[in-house]
Give the backbone structure.
Amino acid sequence: MNWNVEVDIPGIGPRMLTVDQPSASDALEHTKSRVNDMFLQLPSGITSYTVAVFEPGHRTGDASVCAERITLVTATEPARG
């Protein structure tokens, strides 16, 4: 099934994608995996993003089937003493 997925990255804005997965939760997980891979290519400074999955044919204002806000954790070097 082709799910409509919105990825909203603060400072970049929302982007609508079509994701072919059997369920809404699969579409959510697939998109999160792809976005996390994309962040490896982007400059640092982005700390979170939101993924929302909508039924095919949804219209503006329709509720999402599932959504998740992802907060990115970055590794830091330990303080030297």
Remarks:
- The chain has one domain: 2-71.
- Residues 2-71 form one domain.
